UniProtKB/TrEMBL annotation:
Source organism superkingdom: Bacteria
Protein name, UniProt field: Glutathione S-transferase family protein
Organism: Sneathiella sedimenti
Domain GST C-terminal as annotated: residue spans: 84-209
Family membership noted in the UniProt record: Belongs to the GST superfamily.
Coiled-coil boundaries: none
Domain GST N-terminal: 1-79
Pfam families for this protein: GST_C, GST_N
Length: 209
């Protein structure tokens, strides 16, 4: 099994899961700056020209949520629930909310403050951040209320929903995401940091494709 990744938040979720569950996989690092996502070979497995991508025999998957579900099924992990289908629905709700609402809410902070720095793309555009605040606060309020009295987003335990929701938000301090008044979000993020594979998701010995 091969997992193609770049140093960014969607692959981060998958790499954290691989490490957390002790899954054997060849982790192939791609350099997006030198066009690694645009080669004919890579576009054949991920026409979006994004990472991550998983290749497991005949199975080729893009989208980190689907990849994480596949990995959990293979590893027999209930981080993607398959026994209790109501739990699966609950996890699915937060995975879809993440893509539809949370990513657009926190993504501008992540891109301007973290992605640009990681890939030498110039300084953050503060006007983007100013315009993003209202939407970020709107959805942070939703997540904070949901997390009141909870350590995890769904099913009362760690699931792939936490890894999806947390992968941009984990940078909230460096990225100036306005979470100061959302104590349940920051407590939940601090809790995730106690998980060794989440704290350090990146592979130690990686191969650059
Ligand atoms: N919804 C996709 C998002 C994939 C995605 O946007 N990946 C980013 C990294 S977080 C990427 O490859 N960006 C490179 C680019 O756009 O050139 C997933 O969850 O896998």
């Amino acid at each position: 099994m091969k997992i193609y990744w770049i140093h960014a938040q969607a692959p981060l979720r998958v790499l954290a899961l691989v490490k957390h569950l002790g899954i054997e996989a060849e982790l192939v690092r791609i350099d997006p700056v030198t066009g690694g996502l645009h080669t004919p070979e890579y576009k054949a497995i991920n026409p979006n020209k994004k990472a991550p991508t998983l290749v497991d025999g005949e199975i080729v998957l893009f989208e980190s949520a689907a990849i994480m579900a596949h990995l959990c099924i293979k590893a027999g992990s209930d981080m993607w629930p398959t026994e209790n289908l109501e739990e699966q629905v609950e996890v699915l709700r937060w995975l879809t909310w993440n893509e539809g609402h949370w990513t657009p809410a926190v993504g501008p902070y992540y891109v301007e403050k973290i992605v640009k720095k990681t890939f030498n793309m110039g300084p953050p555009d503060v006007t983007v951040l100013e315009k993003s605040e209202k939407n970020c606060l709107k959805y942070a309020k939703v997540l904070d209320a949901h997390l009141a009295g909870k350590d995890f987003a769904a099913a009362g335990r760690l699931t792939v929903a936490d890894f999806s929701l947390g992968s941009m938000a984990r940078y909230w301090k460096e990225a100036d995401m306005p979470f100061e008044n959302f104590p349940n979000i920051t407590r939940w993020l601090d809790g995730l940091e106690q998980i060794p594979a989440w704290k350090n998701p990146w592979p130690a010995d990686e191969k650059v494709a």
